[in-house]
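Usage

Read records sequentially. Each one opens with the input sequence:
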Amino acid sequence: MNTYNPAVRIGNWNEDVSLSEDLLKDFLAKKERGELLIQKTSYLKKNLLQKVNLSVSNDGFVHFGDTIMLVNPGNEKVHLDSTDPPHGPLSLAINPEESKVHTCSSIEAPCGISAIQNL
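and closes with the structure output:
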């Protein structure tokens, strides 16, 4: 007499089914609210890579609230007696914390800054 076959449920099968259903419900709820990591990363990338209009100064000065891009034109002349390495044009860049990039929808201050080479 065989009482076991592949269709027989063993163990805590009801709890396993409930857990799977709860995980699916949580996933769908987070997806609707835009809380999935892939959605947050995509939204942040879209914000960071969008084209921005820079402020135009009428008086030649930078004011609070202006949107600007800082660029170092570089040092084309290399002095033989200089200990500094030669470099080309540079732009200011931000270095956000990786954990905050995935949890926030925008970059929060304070964050590190560095310079990157213009291509």
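Summary fields computed downstream for this record:
- The chain has a mean pLDDT of 77.
- The helical segments are 13-33, 37-49, 98-103.
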